[in-house]
Amino acid sequence: MAKRPTIPDLAQAAGVSISTVNRVINNAESVRQSTRELVFRVAQEIGFYGLGTIQHAIHVHRESFRFGVLLLQKHRQFYASLSQALKLAAEKRLDKRIELFIEHLDDLSPQIVCERLEAMAQDCDAIALVSAEHPLISNKIDSILERDIPVFGLITPLAAKGNVGFVGLDNFKVGRTAAWAFDQMCKAPGKIGILLGNNRYRNQDQNESGFRSYFRENNQSFQLLEPLATYESSAIAREKTEELLSEHPDLQGLFISGGGITGAIAALRDCPRSRDLVIVGYELFDTTRTALIEGNLSLVISHPLDRLAEQTIANLIQSKATGLQNATISTQLGFDIYTPENL
Fold it and tell me: What pLDDT digit, counting tens, does each position of 184-241 carry?
């Protein structure tokens, strides 16, 4: 029977003195937080019996934060996955004690967004949200900033008079990358349909701007159709995709840049279309993964969910640590690209 690791074993494995381990276990004030965390990690690795005591010492001395996050509808796979990634990222921060309040909004009207923002501002140290641009929302963000509560745009940038942070992608670059993919993959220049969720989401507006700028610069032989709004609805996205396929049998490409991609995929699966049609979509989750495998998507550009979640938590912490005057912490992450061959 294996011998249980002792305090001397833990001290040796962690590279600290026995007295330091004893001070960690006894929750002495003189021990640095980084040392507590080191001893805890090593205790986990060697199976030390006093894990609970050490973990309690770490928790007692950790700085505490309460963060609020407003996301779009929970039935959308991407936002359900993002919620889980944020929770895991908060739990992994052993150096901080983070209470995370995540709310999914089914009603995306500006009035409801403002109500939920105000409710979070009553209890939270900082807030991150996914939201469309609207004067009511901008005014509400300004009123929250005036109370020294940092606010971050998540996925899509947000504008206000005050300093609003951002965590997401370089959306102009996303659009240009999608355009490059069509330019390379289409067998001949032709019509490209564009589905947007809502132009009030600045990331989607920037996507389209980058998309068009690439073709103006590199290949004007393509005909970019006017974008069709799905209003973040899978049912409307299906309807608009069916219209495009019916009205433009010579369609060479389809760029699904906004919400409702599950409806667009359903239409692509069920409707007659050219085998050579190139389809570029947004975000990797179960439905888009299956669509890539089945040939109903050619390429997917996606947020790196784990990095997005970890950076969001890090920026929220930093915004409180450095003060509101430095809260315009904007982080643009690199994006992931998926094809049927690299899943």
Answer: 999 999 999 999 998 899 999 999 999 999 999 999 999 999 999 999 899 999 999 9
Which pair of tokens denotes residue 128? 């991150």
For the 64-169+305-334 domain, the top CATH level (class) is: alpha beta
171-302 has which CATH code? 3.40.50.2300
Is there a contact between 310 and 92 (Cβ–Cβ < 8 Å)?
A: yes
DSSP single-letter state for residue 66: E
Sign of CA dihedral 183, 189, 193, 199: positive
Which residue type does 256 have?
I
Nearest to 64 by CA among 295, 328, 316: 316
Asked whether the whole model's pTM tops 0.90, one would answer no
Rounded Cα gap, residues 154 and 167, in angstroms: 5
C-beta of residue 210 within 8 angstroms of C-beta of residue 270: no
Q: Which residues make up the CATH 3.40.50.2300 domain(s) of the chain? A: 64-169+305-334, 171-302
Counting Cβ atoms within 10 Å, is residue 188 exposed (0-12), middle (13-18) or buried (19+)? exposed
Q: In terms of Cα–Cα distance, which of 147, 115, 138, 251 is closest to 195?
A: 251
In 30-106, alpha helices (H): 33-46, 51-61, 77-92
- Render pLDDT for 235-291 as a digit per residue (tens, 0 to 9): 999 999 999 999 999 999 999 998 899 999 999 999 989 889 999 999 999 999 999
